[in-house]
Design brief:
alpha/beta; eight-stranded mixed sheet; 16 helices; globular; binds uridine-5'-diphosphate-glucuronic acid
């Protein structure tokens, strides 16, 4: 059995790695020549714990290529291309349409599995778009960046959506030895499971952030509140960590796309409207706290600890730290940043100095803001920070300091 993977982003590479680790022959194709050239010499285009080792030790080495045809000719083709947000909040499906068309032309009747996160109804619309020339299934992923390989190898569940039973059986067979519960359903339901899962997790975060706002005013300790709540296994302890809002390439985009879908069929998702509004507000919070302490940020030296949208990754897409930097840049603050993995920022942040260590960034700084909950930051004592900082302004929206 050969596996084709279209798209060499996080999802594509984690998918390729997991099938390679399970002994399948995998062809992973992407039109980005630079990315493929790197992968061909054993380098990853981003940091992801353990992924390089899987590729290096696979019994059948993964073929990385810019030739989409060779991936389309495999027995099962996984579509893992991006689905970015369009201007109206909907998911832009142009990459999915493009590779589906290529696959339908090259390999009519191929088993074409949508792993890309796509709005409910996409498998059916793509099937129409290619005039029924593909055997389509929806098989969403639930990978977390920083843990993508482990999540792909040991999934909590395998969701198989197919409108044709023979396709469903092919995928059930592919995953039979994974040891996770399999949910077999139709395509639209499978696609909805993915969106509902991400939206629920985002809502859980906004819930605890709303509670954190109240706790901070009335003198309650939100961390203990979260611990106390999480011990009830109906609630669960995960995703109750308050912070400067959720970021990354998934939650903001997927929540927007689900809201857009609801609006388009006149079923507004009010809870997601609140989730989004709370998130935007929490993302502004560190800036508001800075202004409260320092009044005018012009010329003030501000150290930002953490740029990645969460620990364990060098990904800064939709990272709350970038929003903070933009606001401070508009106020002409003097910015210095440190992140254990992020070494450079997009060009719009050219004026932000990159420090070589967290301690270095504090020298001569009027304030420090901790934007990512990297474990090394929580190992630092607040008193230690205050010894180096020029002022006493320590802003800790992730509650990492003791
Ligand atoms: C998320 C989901 O967790 C995965 O299950 C899903 O497969 C993936 O999106 C996707 O759709 O591909 P990911 O974006 O890697 O994974 O990141 P998360 O670990 O979910 O964190 C998202 C954001 O929420 C981060 O900014 C993080 O700091 C924040 N967060 C998370 C909190 O503020 N509090 C928490 O308690 C948990």
């Amino acid at each position: 059995m050969t596996i084709g993977v279209l798209g060499a982003g996080y999802v594509g590479l984690a998918t390729a790695a997991s099938f390679a680790a399970r002994g399948f022959a995998v062809v992973c194709a992407d039109i980005d020549e630079k990315k493929i050239a790197k992968l061909q010499i054993g380098e990853l285009p981003f940091f992801e714990e353990g992924m390089g080792d899987v590729f290096a030790t696979a019994s059948t080495p993964v073929t990385f290529t810019t030739n989409l045809e060779s991936a389309c000719l495999c027995d099962i083709v996984f579509c893992c291309v991006g689905t970015p947000s369009a201007a109206d909040g909907s998911a832009d499906l142009s990459f999915v349409r493009s590779v589906a068309k290529t696959c339908a032309d090259i390999a009519p009747n191929a088993v074409f599995v949508l792993k890309s996160t796509v709005p409910p109804g996409t498998s059916r619309s793509i099937s129409e778009f290619v005039d029924g020339k593909l055997r389509i299934a929806a098989n969403p992923e639930f990978l977390r960046e920083g843990n993508a390989v482990q999540d792909a190898l040991n999934p909590t569940r395998v969701v198989i959506g197919a409108d044709d039973e023979s396709v469903s059986l092919i995928l059930a067979d592919l995953y039979k030895d994974v040891g996770a519960p399999i949910v077999s359903t139709n395509t639209v339901t499978a696609e909805m499971i993915k969106y509902a899962s991400n939206s629920f997790l985002a809502t859980k975060i906004s819930f605890i952030n709303d509670i954190a706002n109240l706790c901070d005013v009335i003198g309650a300790d939100v961390q203990s509140v979260a611990t106390g709540m999480g011990l009830d296994d109906r609630i669960g302890a995960k995703f109750l960590q308050p912070g400067p809002g959720y970021g990354g390439s998934c939650f903001p985009k997927d929540v927007r796309a689900l809201m857009h879908l609801g609006q388009s069929v006149k079923v507004p998702l009010r809870i997601l409207e609140a989730t989004t509004a709370i998130n935007a507000d929490r993302q502004r919070l560190p800036y508001r706290q800075l202004v409260e302490h320092l009044v005018d940020l012009k010329g003030k030296r501000i150290a930002v600890w953490g740029l990645a949208f969460k620990p364990g990754t060098d990904d800064v897409r939709d990272a709350p730290a970038l929003g903070l930097l933009r606001r401070c840049m508009a106020d002409e603050a003097d910015l210095v940043a440190f992140d254990p993995l992020v070494r450079s920022l997009p060009s719009e942040f050219g004026e932000v100095e990159m420090a070589s260590s967290a301690a270095d960034s504090l020298r001569g700084a009027d304030a420090v803001v901790i934007m990512t909950d990297w474990p090394e930051f929580s190992a630092v004592e607040r008193v230690e920070i205050l010894k180096t900082l020029r002022g006493d302004c320590v802003i800790d929206p992730r509650y990492v300091l003791r």
